[in-house]
Amino acid sequence: MLFGGPVIREIATTGRSEAFERTVCEIFDAPMQALGMGYGELYDRLYDHLCKHYRSEYIYRNSVASLLQREGRLARGTAMLSELRVGKAKADLVVIGQTSSVYEIKTELDNLDRLDRQLSEYLRMFDRVNVLTCERLASRVAKAVTEDVGVTVLTEKGEMLVLRPALSNIHRVDPAVIFDSLRQSEYVGIIGEVFGEVPTVPNTRLFRECKSRFVTLDPQVAHGLMVGAFRQRTPHPKVLGLIERMPRSLISAVLTSSLPARAIARLEAALLSSPA
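The structure assignment produced for this chain is given below.
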């Protein structure tokens, strides 16, 4: 996947990607050097091609990321996470601001077979649970989900249309499910802050001992602590600066690529430079 983390990190590390250049050659029937376009412009061209012919999950994620960027929410500390483990499911997209919102993405290429099971897991962890889908599936999704689940459509014109807002689910979240999605540094910090100390046990028992304390918390308290922890996962300030200057097609890719600060300048040079 050209918009995935491995390719982005390869460009940030070496200044180029053989996989990207090979795919460009296959799609445009010419080597990258002959097209007279650099990485940034070609990424936008590929993105437009996907939007017209193959609206993959990435198109949906990037549409949400672009909206957050336009509204200034990224600059104000909103975090966007993808592929987050939630119980027995994996959340396509999570947005953390003042509260938590999760989006299960159902594209034109998907079916709804697993939707009930996925939403059941999300309702154990997040305040606002949504399905982000296409116009063709919108009515089926709206009928298939409960009224507390929000439904948003990415229209053929690329606009985000909220058909039904999600209702608050914060009182029903499960602290045990929340805990299992936290990193060790996050839950250790939370336990120390809330209970005044971290259990003095071997590392092999630390997870279990911390979890036994966390699950005693009120669901709303546990959710608030999760939101605070996840908001610390916001990208490096240099990444947010780069997003303001980078190709529109790559906002989500760069936000979720976990680039170290030293790689950001190299990525910017590769994306914004003119063709050789």
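Interim note for the steering committee: The beta strands are 79-86, 89-96, 100-106, 128-133, 150-154, 160-164. The first helix runs from residue 5 to 14.
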